From TrEMBL:
It comes from the Bacteria. It is a peripheral membrane protein. It catalyses: di-trans,octa-cis-undecaprenyl diphospho-N-acetyl-alpha-D-muramoyl-L-alanyl-D-glutamyl-meso-2,6-diaminopimeloyl-D-alanyl-D-alanine + UDP-N-acetyl-alpha-D-glucosamine = di-trans,octa-cis-undecaprenyl diphospho-[N-acetyl-alpha-D-glucosaminyl-(1->4)]-N-acetyl-alpha-D-muramoyl-L-alanyl-D-glutamyl-meso-2,6-diaminopimeloyl-D-alanyl-D-alanine + UDP + H(+). It comes from Candidatus Sulfurimonas marisnigri. This is UDP-N-acetylglucosamine--N-acetylmuramyl-(pentapeptide) pyrophosphoryl-undecaprenol N-acetylglucosamine transferase. InterPro entries: GlcNAc_MurG, Glyco_trans_28_C, GlycoTrans_28_N. It is found in: Cell membrane. The keyword Ribosomal protein does not apply. GO terms for cellular component: plasma membrane. Its EC number is 2.4.1.227. UDP-N-acetyl-alpha-D-glucosamine binds at residues 10-12, 124, 179, 277. Keywords: Cell cycle, Cell division, Cell membrane, Cell shape, Cell wall biogenesis/degradation, Glycosyltransferase, Membrane, Peptidoglycan synthesis, Transferase.
Amino acid sequence: MKLCITGGGTGGHLMIAQALVEAAVKDGHEAIFIGSMRGQDRKYFEHHSSFSHVYFLDTAGVVNKKGLGKFKALFKIFLAFLKSRKLLKKHNIVATYSVGGFSAAPASIATLSRSIPLFIHEQNAVEGRLNSLLKPFAKRFISAYDNNSPIAGYPIKEDFFKHARVRESLKTIIFLGGSNGAKAINDLALSVAKHLKKLNIKIIHQAGEADFERVKKEYESLHVEVELYAFTKELDKLISSADLAVSRAGASTLWELTANGCPALFIPYPYAAGDHQYYNAQFIVENNLGWCERENENIKSKLISILDEELESKSKALLEYSSKDVASKMIKDVTEVLND
Ligand SMILES: CC(=O)N[C@H]1[C@@H](OP(=O)(O)OP(=O)(O)OC[C@H]2O[C@@H](n3ccc(=O)[nH]c3=O)[C@H](O)[C@@H]2O)O[C@H](CO)[C@@H](O)[C@@H]1O
């Protein structure tokens, strides 16, 4: 089977694309990727990936643009749609999986225009605009947050399960800002760094590329030792060595922490579309698996109070919560739909 996987923009979408291509190749299939020249698509797949071919088209987001900017963005999508139609034909694509984000638009619409089955993975608890628009035309709409989803769970890298463990006490804390880093999480980490040092708690911190140098200097002036990263490919190992996380509630990170059994204080990105990060984390709070707090002036004292909390029961409960092999179930489902 020859698949097209499309979508991206941020790491959250691209990690799903990666999980899907790995599962497809493992089952003897082939996949091409159609993404955008903007966002993080090239960083993820331009040089190393399991895709047979990767294409980065000249597209940009439409939702936040107005007037001429919106018109230009739509025109670029139209040109990319024509290009995507050609690519689907050239590679004899039999099905397309969209992982959402603005880069998914051209190839998803091209797929429908060629009467090729479209599959969609929605990562968040609140549906993205493009996903909602295309949902009625899709063969499948998979979401970990939808009880009617034909496949339950969230596709994440096997390594997060492999290194999963029950947390018993707090020796190491990890601060995670999502694929772009988060200034609010960086500031929070710096504000508690001395306190953590006093308690002998080791700090791991993924600060994002944009804020990395500032954060590095601040730790130096505080004389606090830290294992500091801008962006790392070793996040599975780093999360596994931590006992507590302080994290944005991007969907992939949230489910990776869950699979690994690492309890977390989630601080949702306040400007996410439809406030989806807040809703992503609600099952964590409702099932007493961790904590979620809005960004506000009390966040530092909230974190300090969590340092004394018992972690073991939450960690054990998290480990029972995730489903394994979701990406390979999604690929098998495509073959079943095509054979129907
Ligand atoms: C600001 C914003 O709107 N963010 C959205 C974006 O987040 P973002 O891209 O930050 O999202 P996620 O947390 O879902 O995923 C980040 C992914 O990057 C990986 N990673 C991250 C840092 C690093 O140093 N190394 C690394 O490998 C993580 O392991 C994870 O797999 O997409 C998600 C999925 O649609 C949404 O839920 C988020 O709301």
